[in-house]
Design brief:
Elements: E1 3-5, H1 7-15, E2 19-22, H2 26-31, E3 38-39, H3 45-48, E4 58-61, H4 66-77, E5 82-85, H5 88-94
Parallel strand pairs: 1-5, 2-3, 2-4, 4-5
């Protein structure tokens, strides 16, 4: 069963250098994402999972938490310590935390 984390837990993990994977579509990502989140759309995650370090926890985020739960489940089946972010990017933004717009993972 996939572990679900809160926005506060994600923020703490990010401060420690956590890997954050955004499984939304490119247009959603460009419109606003968690700083440092890597775009790996849901349809590409299985084929791109080898790009991730299986030794590191992976925090999976989407818009609300539905897609991230399914994709975290997939990563768990592939041997990753994957966690789904409850409330997704919507909750992150709603908490007043910064978001990055554009295709880059972080602001320039």
């Amino acid at each position: 069963m996939t572990v679900t984390v809160t926005i506060d837990e994600l923020a703490a993990a990010r401060a420690d250098g956590a890997v954050v994977v955004d499984v939304r579509e490119p247009g959603e990502y460009v419109a606003g994402h968690v700083p440092g989140a890597r775009l790996m759309p849901m349809g590409q995650l299985a084929s791109r999972a080898a790009d991730l370090d299986v030794a590191q926890p992976v925090y999976v985020i989407c818009a609300s938490g539905n897609r991230s739960r399914a994709m975290a489940d997939l990563l768990v089946r592939l041997g990753f310590d994957a966690r789904s972010v409850d409330g997704g990017t919507s909750a992150w933004h709603g908490s007043g935390r910064p978001v990055v717009t554009g295709a880059r993972a972080d602001a320039a």
